[in-house]
Amino acid sequence: VISVGFYLDSLILLGLSVAHLMLFILYSAPPFKLKTKLLPALMLDASYAYVIPLWFVYVLVTCFIETALMFNPFFIPFTTWAFCVGLRNILRHHSADRHRDKKISATNAFLIFEKRKIITFINILQFIEVLSFTLFIFLFETYNGLLMAALALFILDLLFVVSSKYFFKTRWKLKFKTGALSLNFFYEQRFPL
Question: Alpha-carbon torsion 22, 23, 24, 29, what sign?
């Protein structure tokens, strides 16, 4: 039974590897080169940069806690969180590259839509991201009691970012960057601990 489980997980990991490579080819290589079309580019970038790699982690973790993969209640919030993080970060990248992209006529959300609308969309994304991450941790808690401490740290981190923006009245542009960077800092440095 254990060897069958490892075999099935290996097939899933192989499938994820192939999907990752295919998304990258669709994004960047002719004849597809979907990075020139805004919506497919954003979705593909978020998927191959965040969703697929985090699914690798998801598969490996679920192997160790011996639970069914796709039927877990935390799979949907986990995937939603991964996609929102990826989409928010690619939009942040677009913001930083907008002047260079304008010179070379590259596809960039900040050159197509008003900055205010994109920032509003990013703020909505961040809300969905935080909500789905919190739901993921809460649902995953049924399998591992240690994650409630991570959830508490996450909420305290968010409260600190929100309160520092409110009390110090930082500029709107800085608020967006500070909030995004704080979320990334938490996911990449505090949560793994």
Answer: positive
